[in-house]
Amino acid sequence: MISVVIADDESLARDELTYLLKQCSDVDIVGEATEGAEALALILDLKPDVAFLDIHMPNLDGLAVARKLLEEDLNLMIVFATAYDRHAIQAFEVSAIDYLLKPFDEERVIKTMERIRQRIESPLTAAKGHVLNNALLELLSKMTGDGLSMPKRHTQVSKISKLAVQSEESVVLIDPQDILYVYRENREVFIKTEEKVYLIKATLQTLEEKLASYPFFRPHRSYLVNLNFARELVPWFNGAYTLILNDAKRSKVPVSRAYVKALKDELDI
């Protein structure tokens, strides 16, 4: 079994990540923490295989906790959870660690667990861990010790001007600003504009990355919505909401309860 500690000050985020990790039969969640100091003490006591650390936590943030843990030279894998897009955290793309973008995506969590299993099964795990942990310590030193800060979620990055989708008779080029929302149905992904619905051969995660420079938000694990079209946020059931768009049909997009707080923050509600 792979022992795991989850540290996040948002209960809905902890619940969502716990749910996704429990879909893996080889994962044992041995502890949860709600702030940095508690996470540090818990991890030092339980010595799990993996620590999932939210970057923004009270008392000690995730970066500070990671620095202290790495100084202990534990045989520990660290996965950051963050609301920043991948362009803002590309420095974390080293094989010693991984990151999960909030709101959590099931496919991305599965990929993270696959990387963790590969690391555990490798006979060179321990040696690799020490070398890569040193690289992570250097990175964290630059980010926290030298006063460098993470860019905000919508940091300016190069924009794609068009998305190519296959229609029945031709390839259609769609302006991302015309997209109302993107959604996944079974294993297929669709783009919805005011005029039409297009099937696209890409994952929701890939489209989220391509559209990172536009005001798209993930309100549900199966949806990606253009916030330029947001009109109303209406309570629905059991803490979930419905986002109503301002297109002619007043399209509705579900907002899972785990993502409500992040959406309200994004909309300054």
Give a verbal description of the structure.
With 269 residues, the protein is α/β, with parallel strands linked by helices. It folds into two domains: 2-145, Rossmann fold; 163-266, LytTr DNA-binding domain (OB fold (Dihydrolipoamide Acetyltransferase, E2P), Beta Barrel), CATH 2.40.50.1020. It has helices spanning 11-21, 36-46, 62-71, 106-121, 125-145, 204-210, 260-266; strands at residues 2-7, 27-33, 50-54, 77-82, 98-101, 163-166, 171-174, 179-185, 188-193, 197-200, 216-220, 223-226, 230-235, 241-245, 252-255. Strands 2-1-3-4-5 form a five-stranded parallel beta sheet, with helices on both faces. It has a five-stranded antiparallel beta sheet with strand order 10-9-8-12-11. The longest helix has 21 residues, at 125-145.
The total of helices stands at 7
Overall pLDDT metric: 80
The CATH topology label of the largest domain is Rossmann fold
**Main β-sheet: number of strands, strand sense, barrel status?**
5 strands, parallel
* Known CATH architecture of the largest domain: 3-Layer(aba) Sandwich
Q: What's the overall geometry?
A: elongated
Quick description:
Helices cover 31% and strands 29% of the residues. It is of the alpha/beta class and 269 residues long.
